[in-house]
Amino acid sequence: MARVLIIDDDETLCYSLSRVVRSADHEALTAQTLHEGLALAEAGDVDAVFLDVRLPDGNGLEALPALQKAPSAPEVIILTGLGDPDGAELAMINGAWDYIEKTASKKEITLTLARALQYRREKVSAMERNPVVALNREGIVGESPVMNDCFDLVARAAASDASVLITGETGTGKELFARAVHANSLRQDAPFVIVDCASIPESLVESLLFGHVKGAFTGADRDRVGLIAQAHNGTLFLDEVGELPMSLQKAFLRVLQEHTIRPVGSREMVTSHFRLVCATNRDLEAMVKEGTFRKDLLYRIHAFSLELPPLRQRGTDLREIASYHIARFCKETGRDQKGVSSDFFDVLEKHSWPGNVRELVNVLDQALISSRHEPTLFPKHLPMKLRARVARARVSHGDHPSEAQGPEVTPHYDPEAMPPLQAYRDRVCAEAEARYLKDLMAGSGGNVKKACATAGLSQSRLYALLKRHDISH
Ligand SMILES: Nc1ncnc2c1ncn2[C@@H]1O[C@H](COP(=O)(O)OP(=O)(O)OP(=O)(O)O)[C@@H](O)[C@H]1O
């Protein structure tokens, strides 16, 4: 028997849902406010929660993280209004187990609850078999929902021995995450061996990966253990796996199947049992279609797929990452910790970061060097090129007061600093959305109902957007 909590201010609905829950032989608890519901979830061993979105004391979706952090980490099923696609979408984005319309039939409700409880039973028994100790994040900073999803996947991947493929734009932290998979796995005390497929000359790849014996070729003046053999019992990290020459992909596939290698010039086979983690910023599926990456190899390397989001989609993580690296830099260089002015962060947030965290770290290093012994970082310490680019984009977007009413102007970039189209598009859309929302809230005098009617948005969607852009209402 499971314990199911229903949080809805509609007493009749609470009553009818409780009956459905009890008829499935579960215990039902009810709460008419968010406050009461959170208290019950904190106190009791709750397995599942039916959660309304609009409650008298707040928005249910915003309370989702708190509910999921309750001691029993219940599965949450969101109750949405009839035909509310925004609510359904938000429920899923925010990590609910499922959503169900308030008018759903008894059968649908019972089935959704049964599925959530079955998933929960399986999850609990898997955790009992493989208890997950707190994840060692290996210096990875970030708390945004997208990053938390990535940490969840690292925890799951680390608990197994299956291969992991990490994708993401350049500088998003692929190597850092590969190290985290290793550091959290049972292989953590064995070697973590990196192979940068992009930087090894094609003529040397084979001997570097497989090793060679003395005299195997001109210049082979001694035996050399290959990187694959070095990774025995540990983790082999193939960075930029898309660059692995076609000629070697077949041989490497055999290594994955048989776990044995023959060093160049040797008759002996060497055994190596390693966990494989690969990374790439290329589209391997597209490479398979164009015939430059083997389909069978792709199948073998991505039992788990981890897609790292670009920095521009990580919200306030940017500030946290920046603060982390500023503190690290000051510590490493023996300087006093520096303060940061809020407009310093404002400028950082206006940039689209096509080079992601790596670009941010480089920019911060430059700012810290140029600030010398001054105790606080100001925008003037940032590289001139970056400030100029941000200023240009701001003006062309009408952020400058004198241009605020002007027509939309496409920002111009100097040819050397063109961002990727996707980065540009994301930034422009996010800025346009934020501007619209500010105008919308100002125009409706902060009246959320009026703003929803004007924008054609549901309240939950509007709240989520305001939260995303940090706009008060
Ligand atoms: N979430 C994060 N928190 C703190 N630092 C990070 C984070 N992500 C990346 N970094 C830092 O950014 C830099 C680049 O990270 P990393 O080398 O792992 O990226 P990558 O995706 O492998 O890059 P590339 O595609 O160019 O190989 C490193 O200095 C790393 O420490």
Automatic annotation (TrEMBL):
Pfam families in alphabetical order: AAA_lid_14 (PF25601), Response_reg (PF00072), Sigma54_activat (PF00158)
GO molecular function, a single term: ATP binding
Residue ranges of domain Response regulatory in the record: 3-117
InterPro entries according to UniProt: AAA+_ATPase (IPR003593), AAA_lid_NorR (IPR058031), CheY-like_superfamily (IPR011006), Homeodomain-like_sf (IPR009057), P-loop_NTPase (IPR027417), Sig_transdc_resp-reg_receiver (IPR001789), Sigma_54_int (IPR002078), Sigma_54_int_dom_ATP-bd_1 (IPR025662)
Domain Sigma-54 factor interaction: 140-369
Alphabetical list of Gene3D superfamilies matching this protein: 1.10.8.60, 3.40.50.2300, Homeodomain-like, P-loop containing nucleotide triphosphate hydrolases
Keywords annotated in UniProt: ATP-binding, DNA-binding, Nucleotide-binding, Phosphoprotein, Transcription, Transcription regulation
Domain of life according to the entry: Bacteria
Record PTM 4-aspartylphosphate, positions in chain: D52
Keyword DNA-binding: yes
GO BP annotations, alphabetical order: phosphorelay signal transduction system; regulation of DNA-templated transcription
Protein's name according to its UniProt entry: Signal transduction response regulator receiver domain
